[in-house]
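Priority: low. Protein: mannose-1-phosphate guanylyltransferase. Input follows.
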Amino acid sequence: MTVTSVIMAGGKGERFWPKSRTNLPKQFLNIAGNKSMIQQTVARLEKLMDIKQIFIVTNESYAELIGAQIPKLPTNNIIIEPIGRNTAPCVGLASLIVEERYPDSTMIVLPSDHIIKDESEFINILETAVHVAQQQENIVTLGVSPTGPETGYGYIERTDEMWDSFNTPVYKVNQFVEKPNLEIAQKYIEEGNFYWNSGIFIWKSKTIRKRIQQFMPDMDVLLKDIQPALGTPWESDTIKQKFLEMPDQSIDYGIMEKADHIYVVPCQLGWDDVGSWTALDRIDDRDDNGNVIRGNILNIDTKNCIIESNDGKLIATLGIEDLIVVDTEDVTLICTKDKAQEVKKLLKELRTQKREQYL
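Result:
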C-alpha cells in the first residue's frame, strides 16, 4: 500500500510575530538550523517516501514561496485552500485529492512548522504508525511524552489496552483533551498516561473519508460536490465555491474527539511545535544566566530572557529578567515571558488601528 503525506502549511504563525509576518510566516523561516521549517519537514518525509507522494496544503499567497523553497515538489502537489477554514476542511480536501491520485494510500498528516531533533526515531515511529493504520480502519496519532506541565498543548489520554506486540508500544486512546490550566496539566503529568498532542495523524485515505461522512456529514456533502471536478478545467472554481461553505473546525474537534479505533504511539523525539517565542528556551542553548541570545547582544545583569536582534543591530540590556525582546527591521517586541501566548492581542490591536503594514 502506498504511503503519502499531507503537510499543512497555511498558518500565519502569529504568536511568533514580529519575525513571523503575513508575507513570510513561521514555516518559511529558519528557526532552528540552516533550513526553513517546511524544508526540514519535507526532508524528513523524503526518508520514507518519494517527493511525488508528498502534498502541501496552503493558501494562494504562499504557493510561490513553497515553489521557491521546495523546487523539486511537483506543482500539482501544492493544494490551494481558497480561504482558511481550520484543519478539518484542509484534511478533507487533501484526502480527496490524495485518494484521486493514490487510491487506497495511507496518509500521514502533519504540520509544516514543528521541530523534531531525533529524525531517525521519527521515521521508525511513523513506520509503526503506518502499519497500525493499515489494519482495519484504525486512526493513529503520535503522542509526545511530556517533559513538564505545558499549558500550551492539548493532551491525549491513553488506556492500558495495547495493539498487538511491537518494539514500540501502541496504546488505544481514551480521549483527547483541550489545553489545560497549570493545575490540570500537573495532574496529567502525575498520572503518567497523558501525552502532548503532536497534531500528527496517520490513517488510510478511505478511513478518514468514512469518518468525515460519519461525524461531519455537511462537510462530506461539500467534498462530494468537489470530487467530480478534480482534474477538470473547473476544479479551482469549484473548490473556491464549496470551500466558502466549509465549517471552521479543527480535525481534533470534528473527528478525533468523537471517533473510535484511535491509537497513540508514545514518543520522545526532541519535538517542539514552536508555538510561541518561549519555545526558544526549549530548542536553543542558554547562557549561564538562562538567556537565549541571537544576534548582536550586550547584556549585563540579565536573566532568563529571550533576545534576538536584526541585521547586526546592537541590543543592550541591563537588569532585566524573564523578558522577550525581538527586534526586526520595522518592529521591536518587548513582553514578559508569561504573555508569550498572548502576542496575538497585539496583532488584533494593529488591525483595529488599521496599521496592517506591521502585520
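The mean pLDDT is 93. Residues 279-358 form one domain.
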